[in-house]
Amino acid sequence: MYTKVRNSIGSLFVRNKSNQIHIMNHQEANINHYAKILQKTIDFVTTHFRNANQPFSGINPADLKPAVHAIDFNTTSTSIDELLVEVKALYCQHAVSFHLPKYIAHLNCPVVTPTLAAEVIISALNSSMDTWDQSAGATLMEMKLIDWTCDQLHLGPSADGVFTSGGTQSNLMALLMARDYYINRTLAYNVKIEGLPADAKRFRVFCSEKSHFSIKKACSILGLGENAVVCVPVGNRFKMNTKELKILMEKEIAQGNIPIAIVATAGTTDFGSIDPLIELGELAQVYGAWFHVDAAYGCGLMLSDNHKYKLNGIEFANSVTVDYHKSFFQPVSSSALLVSDKDTLRLMCYHADYLNPIEQEKDGYPNQVNKTIQTTRRFDALKLWFTLRLMGKDVLGEYIDQIIYTAKQTAIIIDKDPDFELLNQPEISTILFRYNPYSKKVAALNTLNQFIRKKLMDSGKALVASTKVNNDVYLKFTILNPVTNTKDISIILELIKNIGNEYARNN
Fold this sequence. Notes:
By secondary structure, the protein is an alpha/beta fold. The protein has helices at 2-17, 28-51, 61-69, 80-90, 113-125, 132-135, 137-152, 167-187, 191-194, 214-221, 242-254, 277-287, 324-327, 358-362, 381-390, 393-416, 442-459, 486-506, and strands at residues 160-164, 203-208, 229-232, 258-265, 290-295, 319-323, 335-339, 420-422, 430-435, 465-469, 472-478.
């Protein structure tokens, strides 16, 4: 009986051993299998790029959902070729093509080719960036890139940082440090052990009314509540009004509340506006508040000799958010949180004997998990490493110069056209406007421009965004592709006019 069971188990093991071909390892058969699958996938991707001729297919969820739901995970594809056909039908042919020049909707950039080579290495080696014994050289390479970025922003010799998944995580970590820095410095209270002190209900975070929603989200997650966020009005260029900020801070102080942080935005999502960083940094020092700069969008300005002056004052920041995947032409996710004083990162540090014991720190082993709320992280920094080493900063700077130039020319074209109403002059590369040829009432204009955006998306010929300013609907161009030129812009504007005329005929 025992022999029969043993033989049965052995037979099962032998039968399943062929499945081990899928494990990426040192064996020749496995390596060849990997190379074959990767080559077929590369051929598939290159064909996709050759054939992509418009930003979007125009598919809607109701039409695509049945095909996705029909997939049975209890069965497998017979080959990589069959699987790629499936992925093409469900994903690739409907994927939004950020790389095409007529995609000018959101803060999505085309990616540079060195990053794609890096992605192959990142995925295959699968380093985890939390501890030295899982990442070794990758740790030092990430630290080198953080130091380089801090140097570009002149954050000082004590600066440090860590790669993150995106701007939302970076902003959360920044406000976590702002909260705990005030508590530790002023209240002599251990928030990690004891939770939030009673005074926390009086904490206030000041930001522009045009700041990213992640600021309120962070305060909610941190137990301060959205009501802790004081939104400061903007001026006529959609920048935070420093006079209003001072008035609001004094008002909150008079009510017994405590300003713990000022958040400046270097590149708002709607307008690309850069808050007055120098003035805000000075005010933060006067009030003893943490100064955070959300430069997720505007960080690319540091690459440009012509435009980096727009970030003057960022050197006063306690912390800075940068999104390489917005302005450095990197694939998501590639972001970072930077701090001017590396010791403040310890506010997020936890030790575990099984992961990052204190003894390792004493022995000089750098564990990046000590700097972040994440544990397991990909080696996303390698993408930026490849970019800087193969292309260089200057080429990236030329890309930034080009998109800013195209944005300025776009604003001129729109402003000269009597059918359009221009709302802002771009500081980086975002333009807001609306189609308004008929002098219609505002309500009618809102409906008209909403119709234009949706109709354009449904066609797939071009993708633009929309937003509301004082409850009025505006179309939004966000130019982050150096290949996009004024000819592309003119074609999109003509499409908008055609859709607007169609709407007028039917309404």
